[in-house]
Amino acid sequence: MKVYVKKLAKEARLPAYGTPFSAGADLYAAEGAEIPAGETALVHTGISIELPSGMVGLVYARSGLACKEGLAPANKVGVIDCDYRGEVMVALYNHGRQTRTVFAGERIAQLVIAPYYTADFEEADELSDTVRGAGGFGSTGKA
What is the dihedral of CA 99, 29, 26, 46, to 10 degrees? Predict the structure, then answer.
């Protein structure tokens, strides 16, 4: 699958896979940022992308950055629609107790490209019955 990437900044780097079997491609910071403890900073990647129709870009945390530095996307999973052509940015939240610095060129998140479906939502008076029914949070697996 070909995905076109436009550099919006000279310092920008194209997404890159760490290994041939990586599901997520690394996204890189185009510029540095200071993120105080308990706050969020919008980190620029300096790129825009053209995803094929029917595909979505999902922006996830990088496990090392999240576990070791306490930095992860504030929205947990970012969604890049295939018709979006603006700059890809990552809202990084600092879960730690001290200010963290993100440096230009640093890997800040990972991009997973996946197919998606759209639904035709139709109002219904009744829904089919299931064993679970209306059981909510924590309702499965109980005797």
Answer: 150
Q: Are 88 and 47 in contact (CB under 8 A)?
A: yes
Tens-place pLDDT, residues 45-79: 999 999 999 999 999 999 988 999 999 999 999 99
Residue type, 93: Y
Q: How far is CA 48 from CA 7, 27, 107, in A?
A: 7, 11, 16
Q: Give the residues across from 128 on adjacent strands.
A: none
Task: Please give the sequence-ordered ranges of beta strands (E in DSSP) within the chain, or none if there are none.
Answer: 4-7, 16-17, 25-28, 33-35, 40-44, 47-50, 55-60, 71-73, 78-80, 89-94, 100-102, 107-115
Q: Does this model's pTM top 0.85?
A: yes
Nearest partner of 6 among 81, 80, 87, 111, judged by Cα:
87
Q: Which amino acid belongs to residue 139? A: S
Q: Domain spanning 4-115 has what CATH number?
A: 2.70.40.10
Strand-pairing partners, residue 31, are none
Query: Which structure tokens are listed for 112?
Result: 């997973």
